[in-house]
Amino acid sequence: MATKPTATNTGRAGRRTLRLQTGMVSFRRLLLYLVLVLASLFFLFPLAWMIGTSLKTVEEVGQPQLNLLPSIPQWSNYTILFGEDPFYRAYFNSVFIAIIVLFGTVTSVTLVAFSFARLQWRGRNIVFALMMGTLMLPYQATLVPQYVLFYNLGWIRTFNPITIPGFFAGGAAYVFLLRQFMMTIPRELDEAALIDGANPLQVWWYVIVPLSRPAIATVAVFLFVGTWNSLTYPLIYLQRAELFTMPIFVAQKLNLQASPLPWQDVMAASVTFVIPVLLIFIFTQRYFVEGITMTGVKG
Amino acid sequence: MTSDIRLDNLIWVALTVLFIIVTSTGLGLLARAIARWRGLSEGEQRKLFWGITLAGPWIVGFLIFVVGPALASLFYSFNNYKLGESLEWTGLENYRALIMGIGAHGRRFTQAMYNSFYYALIGVPLQIITALGMALLLNNEIRGIRSFRTIFYLPVILAGGPAILLAWRYMLSANGGFVNVILQKLASSFFLFDWLYRGFIFVMEGFNSFYTGLSRGDPLGPLKFVIPGALAILILITLLGDWSESKRARTWGIIQILALIVLAATLPRGLMAAPIDPIWTVVVGLAFLGFILLSAWQGHEGRVRAFQIAALIVFAITLALTLAAAAPDSGDPAPYLIAAAAAAAPVLLSLFGVWSRRKYTLLGIAFAILALAVFIHVIPGQLDGGRLALIPRYLTFGTTLEQPGDLTYLKETYPAEIMSAIWFFALAVVMLAAIALLGDRYPRARRAVLYISLAFFLLFTAGALVDGVRYFRAFDTIAAETGTPAYHFARFRTATAQFPTQDRVPLWMTSELWTKPSLVLITMWSTGAGMLIFLAALKGVPRSLYEAAEVDGAGRTQKFFKITLPMISPAMFYNIVIGMIAALQTFESIYILRTPDTEDTLASAAFFLFVRTFRQLDIGQGAAASWILVVVIVVLTVIQFRYSNWVNYEA
Amino acid sequence: MKRAFSRLLVLAILLTLLAPVLTVGAQGAQTLEIYITGLGDDQLNWFREVAFPAFQETHPDVTLEILTGGWGDFDATVAGWITTGDGPDIIYLGSEYAATYGPLLANIDPYLEGWDELEQFLPIALDTVTWDGHARGLPLLMSPRPIFFRTDLFANPEAGIPLTFEDALTFVGENTIIENNALVRQGYMALGGGLFDAQEFIADIWTAGGELYYEDGTSAFDSAETAEAMQFTYDRRRLVLPTEDTAGLPPFEGTALASNAVVSGIWAMWQAPATDDPLWDDIAMGPYPAGEKGEPLIQVFIDWLSVPAYVPEAKLPLVVDFLKFIASQDNAIALNNVAGFTPTRQDAWEAIREASPVWARLLDMAVEYGRAFSDIRASAELRPLIAEQMNLYLTDQQSLEDTQRIMKEEYDAILEDAGYIK
C-alpha cells in the first residue's frame, strides 16, 4: 500500500468531494440510463420487428411499406402454430437434444479444462496446443469424411451425430474459456485440499467447480444457445421430418414458392423458438453476474 | 418411431459415458506405465495418470472424431478429387493454384483471404471494444440492470436464424432504412454533424475502395515501399533514448515478427514454384537455425528443443520427398541433397555440446555463410538490372518511372521490374539485429546505427511516397488524354475525387465498398458472447482492489487501466484469440446475406472452401484451401500465445 | 471401493464391446426415398397423403418416404450420400444441376424405352434433364420467367412492350425516377432484385444472336454478340443508377411487382401476385429484348426429379416407375391444383388454360419463346465467374475488352478441366 494521506487532509477534501459526488452521482446515473436505453433500442429493434411481424396478416406482410406493428394483432398465427403436430415434435426433439448435449458437454468440458488449468503433467502444453488446433480447422473441411465416419457407425438419421460428440469435451472453445477462468483461481486452494489427502477428482468437484460457477454458467448458456440454434449438422444428419429440430422447422416455414412469403408464420415460430433461450438466460444470469464466490476468495 | 430414435440415442449416451470412463482411465494407466518405464518419479507418474485421465474425454474424442477426418481431408488436398470420381495424386497442385493465385479459383481465393483479414484485423478489435464497453455499462449496480443485461444479450440469442439477418437487411437498407434515416436526421440537425457524417462516408469509402483495389491485385507501385518504411520508422522511434533490458527484449521480439513476415511472404510462393528452387531448403534451414539460436540465447530450453525437433522432421520429409520425387522423374536430386545437407548441418551441430561462447560463434558463422549464400543466389533474379538503383533515387526524391505515359508499362512491366518490398523488411531485420547486438556493449555504435537507419528509412519512405503519388497521378494523366478510364484503383479514384455531397448515404448491403463494414457492424451488434465473458471477469475483480486504489487517490481512468484491464486480461486474451479464429472462419452470415452482386466482396476463405467443395464439387482444392486457412490461423494464434505475457493470471 | 470400481470397469468394457450388436436395426422391406427441398408443407403433404397411397395400390409392398432438408445444406448432404453410396433414390433438383451433377446421376434411358407419354413433354424440359445424351430423371414442373410490365405505371402510356435492346434502353430511361440521389421508381429490375443476373445475362447473349460455345466447344465470350449483350447490360445499369453511389429503392416486403416502385422486371410466377389479383389487369408480359441479329426469348426453368448413380440397378425399374407415376397427366394436373406447379406436359395444360388467362398467356409464351437453361457446361463454376467479371465491368473497374478476354480465358480453362474440351 502506498502512503496514507494525513488525517486533516482527507477530512476537508473528503467532505467536499462527498457533496460534489451526490450531485455528480445522480447526473451520472441519468446519463448511464440514457446510454443504456439508447443502446437497448438498437438491440431490441430486431425482436420488435419479429414480434410485430408475427402478429400481422398475410396482406400486411406483403405491403410495400415497412410497418413495425400490425393494425390488429393476429393471435391466430399462434393458435394455428400450436395446432400443428410437427411443431410439438420439433420442439420436443430440440429440448431432448439440448438436455443431452448440455449434460454431456458441461461435465466433460469442466473435467478437461480442470486438467489443463490445474494439474501439472508432462506433455500438457502439447495436448492443449492440439486442442486449440482443432478450433482452427474449419468444420466445412471435414464434413465429408465425418459423414462417412458417422455412416459407418450407423448414425445417419439418428440424434447421435448431434449429441454424442459433445460428451468428448466437444467444443475446444469452451475448454479454453474454462481454462482461462480456472487459471485465475489461487493455487493455494487446491494445494491445501491435496495435502488434506483429496485426489484430483475430489479437488475438481469440491474446490474448483464451485469456484468456477460464473464461468460454467457462461459456458452452459453459450452451449445451450449454440445447440438450440444449430442448423447445419441437424440438417445434414437428421434428414427425416420426424427427427427435425426447431431451427429446421422455422427454416422450413420459409416456403420460397409462396407469394408473398409467409413471414408472419416464420416469425411466430421464431418467437416461440427464442423464448426458452431467453428464460435460460434470465435464470442463469444470476450465477455468472454475481461472482460473489470469486470476490470472496480474492478479497 | 421417434421414440425409438430417442431410446437408441439414450443407449448410445450410456455406452458413450462408459466408453469414455474406460478409455480415459486406460489412457491414464498407459501413460503411467510409460512414465514408469521411462523411470520417472512416483509423483510424476501420479500426476501424469490424473492429468491424462481427466483430459481423457477430449483425447479420446480427438482420436475418434477429429484425427481420421482431418487426415482424410489432408490427403484429399494433395489429390485431384472431384466428388464421385476417383482420386488422382497431384502433389502440391491444388495448393499451388491457390497460393500463386492462378486462374479464376486462385484469384477468388486471394480475394477471400483479403476479406477474411479484413474481418479479423478490423472487425475483431471493434468487436472487443464494443463488448468491453457493453460489459462496463452493465457492470453498474443500478435498478433494472438485469433487464438491460438480457436486452444486450438478445442479439446472440436471435442471431441464430436467417430471420434476424433479414431484419438487418431492412435496417441497413440504403434508402429509407432505420440506420440511414437516423444518420441523416442527425446530419441535418446540426452543421457539425453534417460534416462528420460526410467525413465518415468519405473516410469509409476511401479506405474500403483502396482495400478493394488491393484485394483485386492492382499494383501499388512505389507506394508498396511505404509499408516496410513506415513500420521501420515506427519501430526505430520507440528505440530512441537510453538502452534498457526491456528495449532489448522488445527488439528481439520485433525481429522475430519481422522475420516471420519475410518468411510468410516468400516461403509459400517459393515452395509452390515448379520446379522448386533448392535454395528454399536453405532458407528453411536458416529460419530454424535463427530461431534455435535466438531461443538458446534467451534461455528457453524447451523452445530450443522444439525447434530442433521440428527442423529435423522437416528435413527428414524434405529428404524423403526429394528422393521419392526424383526417382520417377529421374531429375537430378544432387542440388537438392547438397542444399539440404548444407542447411541441416548447423541444426544437427546445435544438438551437441553445451551452449558455450564457441558454439554460438560457430553457429553464428554458419548462419552468416548460409544467409550470404541465399543472398548471392537470389541477387541475379531479384536485384540485378539496376533494380538497386531505386534506393539512391528515392533518397534524392527522384523517380523510377521511365515511361509514365504508357498504360501497359505502368500496369504490368513496371510492377514486375521494381524490387520486392520484402527486401526492406529484411533490411529492417538486419538493422534491428545490429542495434540489439551492439546495444549491450557499444552504446555509441548502437546510437550511430540507430540514427543512420532512421535517417535512411525516413528519406527512403518519403522518396517512395513522392514517387508513389507520381505513379498514381500518371494513370489520371493517361485517362485524361485518352478519354477512357485507366482502371487502376478505379473505385478509389472515384470515391476520393470529391467530398461527398449532402444527399449521399452509406450503401450498406448493396455497394462493395460497404458490404464488409456492414458485416463488421452486424458482428459488433451480436457480440453479446464476448460481453458476457467480460462481465463474468469484471465481476471477479475484488472490490478491495478498487478501494485500495481509491485510498491512493487513483482516478477513474487510472483505476480502469491499472486494475480493471490487468484483472480481466485472461478474458481479453480469450476474446481476442477466439474472435480472431471465428473472424477468419466467418461463414453463416455471409451465406445468408450475400447476393450475386456482393458475394465476392463478402466471401471469406471459409465461404470459398464451401463453394469449392460443395457447389463445385472439387473436394481436393476445397481441402487445400482449408489447410492453408488452418496454417494461417495457427501462425496467428501461436503469435498471440507467444506474446501473451500481458495476460495476468492470479493477479 | 476399489473392487467395485474394477467391477464397473469390466462391465463397461463388456458393454462397449457389445454396443455394435445391440444397436443393429432390422432392415425393412423395399423402401423408396425421395429427397425434396424447397417445397412447403402443403406440397409435401400431397405427396404423403395422396400420391404415395395411390402408388402403393399398384406396388403394395413398397414403402415410400420423403426426406427433406434446406437448400443451404443441400450440397453437403448430397456429398455425404455420394461418398457413402447410400442415400435417397430420387433427388429433387433445380434447372442447372444436370451440368453440375451429370456424371453422378444414373442413365435411365433403358427404362424409358417404349414409354409413349414421353413425347407429351416440352422438348426443352427433356433437354434439361439430359446429360451426356441420356436422361437422368424426369421433369416435374417448370417456371417460365418473362419480363413483367406494370402498364399503369408507364411514363409514356402509349409505349408498347420493348422488343429490341434499343427500345428497352429507352423504356428503362423513361420509367426511372431519381430524387435526391436515390431511386424513387425503377424502370427495370433483374431476378433477385439487382440490375444484373448471371442467368439473364446468358439469355441476353442468346437474344443478341450469340451462343456460349463455338463449334469446337470453346467459350464464345469473346464474340461480338457477347460484347453487345454486355454493352446493353451496362447502358441499362447507367440509366437506372447514373453513378455507383445512387441509393437503391426503399425496402419493401412482398412482391416487387406490386410495390408500385418497379415498372418492369424478371420474376418467377411465385414472386408475382396471385393470378386472381385485380392487379393483373395492369400487368403485361413480354419476352427479353433482342439485339440486331437475335430473336426475343424467355427463359424457362425446370425443376426435376433425378436418379443418383448409386441407386442399385435392380431397383431402377421401381424408381423409374415412380417417376412415370408422378409425371403422369393426372398427377401433373393434381400438382397444379394443389401446389401451383406448372406441368411440363402439354396434355395437362388444357385445364390450366381454362382456369386462368394469365397462365394461358404464360404457357403460350413458353411455347413461343421458351429456352431452357440446358447445356450450360460447368454451371457451378460459370455463374460466379460471370458475376465477378460482369460486376467489375458494370462498376467501371474493368474495360469491356479485358472482361471479355478474362471470361473467355478462364471459362476455357474450366471447360478443359471438366473435360468438355479435349
Structure description:
The complex is a heterotrimer of chains A (299), B (651) and C (422). With 299 residues, chain A is mainly α. Chain A contains 15 helices and no strands. Chain A starts with 6 loop residues before the first helix and ends with a helix. Among the domains of chain B are: 2-71, no CATH class; 93-174 and 507-642, Orthogonal Bundle (MetI-like fold), CATH 1.10.3720.10. Chain B is built from 28 helices and 2 strands. In chain B, helix 9 runs antiparallel to helix 18 (443-482). The radius of gyration of chain B is 28 Å and the shape is globular. Chain C is α/β, with parallel strands linked by helices and 422 residues long. Chain C has 2 domains: 31-144 and 300-372, 3-Layer(aba) Sandwich (D-Maltodextrin-Binding Protein, domain 2); 145-299 and 376-417, Periplasmic binding protein-like II (D-Maltodextrin-Binding Protein, domain 2). Helix content of chain C is 43%, strand content 14%. Mean pLDDT of chain C is 88; it is low at 20-28. The chains are: A mainly alpha (299), B mainly alpha (651), C alpha/beta (422).
Looking at the structure, what is the overall shape of chain A? Answer: globular
The strand line-up of the biggest sheet of chain B is 1-2
| Overall mean confidence score, pLDDT of chain B | 88
Radius of gyration of chain B: 28 Å
Total of domains of chain A: 2
Q: Find the structural class of chain B using helix and strand composition.
A: mainly alpha
Q: The CATH topology of the domain at 93-174 and 507-642 in chain B is what?
A: MetI-like fold
Under CATH, the topology of the largest domain in chain A can be stated as: MetI-like fold
Bin the strand percentage of chain A. under 5%
